[in-house]
Amino acid sequence: MKHPFSILVIMLFFSCSPNKKSEITISNNTSSIIDSIKITYGTEKEFKNYLIKNINAGDKVKTVLDMQLKGIDGGYYLEVFQNKKKTGQDFGYYSNAKFKNSIFEVKIEKDTLIINENLKANYNKI
Length: 126
What we know:
By secondary structure, the protein is mainly β. It is built from one helix and eight strands.
């Protein structure tokens, strides 16, 4: 091998691609339909909203958010609209422009929101 350093640099470049995504799975564990869910995510310089409508009781939905955002520090905020009531919760945090490639599991129960975060090592396959 003539240029092992060059090969290492190329591998490092492709492994650090800007294809940053977060996956969120939402389970409606209530006995009624959820009118809508709004996920707001972003940094101090830019934010995005993602809206999901009409999630039936017992249903599970999955979405992948594009995390290509300007800025350094940020997080997520979840709002659930059900039976003319609004529930909200902050979750997840990233710093120094390093978005964790995360999988979030959101469980909507009758009287609470449960949010779990799992890190995914190789997330570029989504």
